C-alpha cells in the first residue's frame, strides 16, 4: 500500500510542468540532509519520457553537486548547529572523525566513492566542510561520482525504455525496498567500517 502510494506520487510528477523541479529539489536535498535518494524518481521519469534521459541526468547531477556544495558549507561554517544535528540524526557522530582521517589519506577517492555508491553522500559532504578539505578537489570528485551514477541510471533506463516502465510498475515496491536496503547497507558500512 505504501509503495503503491509512492509510485502514484512519483508518476504524478511526470505529468506536471514542474517534474524537473521536483527531481532537482530531491537531488539537492539528498546530498545535504534528506535520506531518500533521487534514483527512483529519476528512473520513472526517464522510463516514461525516454527522449529526455540526458536532461534528467543533467538536472539530477547538477542539483546533487550543488546540494553537496551546500552541505560542505554547512560543515565548514555551521557544523556545531546544523551539521551536527544532521549527522546525529543518522547516528553517525563517531564515524565523522574516521572520515576526517580518511580525507587526509585520499580526499578524492573518499568523496568519489560516496558520490557514486549508496554510501550516504551527505556524511561525506558535511565532513568535507568540517575538516576544511580542498573545496575544488571535493567538487571535482563529487561531480565525477554523481555524473557517472546518474548518467548511468538514466542511460540504462533510456536503453531499456518501455520494458523498464512495465517492470518498474510491476515491481516498484520491490525496487523501492531494494533502494532502501542499499541505503541502510550504506549506513551500516559507515558504522561498522569507518
UniProtKB/TrEMBL annotation:
Transmembrane segments: 20-36, 56-79, 107-130, 136-160, 172-193
Keyword Transmembrane: yes
GO terms under cellular component: plasma membrane
InterPro entries according to UniProt: DedA_domain (IPR051311), VTT_dom (IPR032816)
Top-level taxonomic group: Bacteria
VTT domain residues: 36-158
Protein name: Cytochrome B
Entry keyword annotation includes Cytoplasm: no
Keywords tagged on the record: Membrane, Transmembrane, Transmembrane helix
Amino acid at each position: 500500500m505504501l509503495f503503491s502510494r509512492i509510485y502514484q506520487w512519483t508518476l504524478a510528477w511526470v505529468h506536471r510542468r514542474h517534474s524537473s523541479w521536483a527531481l532537482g529539489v530531491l537531488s539537492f536535498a539528498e546530498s545535504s540532509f534528506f535520506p531518500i535518494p533521487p534514483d527512483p524518481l529519476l528512473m520513472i521519469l526517464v522510463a516514461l519520457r525516454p527522449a529526455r534521459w540526458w536532461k534528467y541526468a543533467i538536472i539530477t547531477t547538477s542539483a546533487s553537486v550543488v546540494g553537496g556544495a551546500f552541505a560542505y558549507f554547512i560543515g565548514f561554517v555551521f557544523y556545531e548547529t546544523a551539521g551536527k544535528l544532521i549527522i546525529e540524526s543518522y547516528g553517525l557522530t563517531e564515524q565523522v572523525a574516521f572520515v576526517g582521517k580518511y580525507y587526509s589519506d585520499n580526499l578524492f577517492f573518499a568523496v568519489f566513492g560516496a558520490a557514486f555508491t549508496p554510501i550516504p553522500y551527505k556524511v561525506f559532504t558535511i565532513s568535507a566542510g568540517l575538516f576544511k578539505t580542498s573545496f575544488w578537489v571535493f567538487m571535482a570528485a563529487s561531480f565525477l561520482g554523481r555524473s557517472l551514477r546518474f548518467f548511468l541510471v538514466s542511460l540504462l533506463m533510456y536503453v531499456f525504455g518501455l520494458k523498464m516502465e512495465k517492470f518498474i510498475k510491476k515491481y516498484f515496491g520491490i525496487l523501492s525496498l531494494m533502494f532502501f536496503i542499499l541505503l541502510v547497507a550504506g549506513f551500516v558500512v559507515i558504522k561498522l567500517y569507518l
